[in-house]
Amino acid sequence: MTNSTNKPTTLFWIISVIALIWNAMGANAYIQQAYNTESYQAMYTPEQIEIANNVPAWVTAMFAIAVFGATLGSIFLLLRKKIANSIFVISFLAVAIQMSYVFLLGGMGEEYYGAGGMIMPIMIIVIAIFLVWYSKKATTKGWLS
After folding, report:
1. Would residue 145 count as lying in a domain?
2. Quick one: angle between helices 57-78 and 119-140, nearest 10?
């Protein structure tokens, strides 16, 4: 049983819901890409689809771990379970590995994301770091058990 001092703030619930929506959108993006759906094909040029089709399997695996892990972490955050932090850490590690391909190995730069499009990968990294930090903070405050 939790007492009133361990009751999460309204901001906690807002962040948790937004995290779930954001990460569910990422999981949807993975599914669209994995199944090469018509809506996925309509969003990208043939050149961008070709780049995505040639991404190494380890990058695709990290994409899956990152988005499905973060979605699961968001669900646990909403359920107020401290395992959310561990899952967000795993998800962040997958993001870091995936983005090493984007930034360091030159696999998906401006050709895939477009001019100025590297903002999205940077946002993904920042949000992943934030969710690790926030879930740790929520655990420290006693909001997660």
Report:
1. no
2. 40
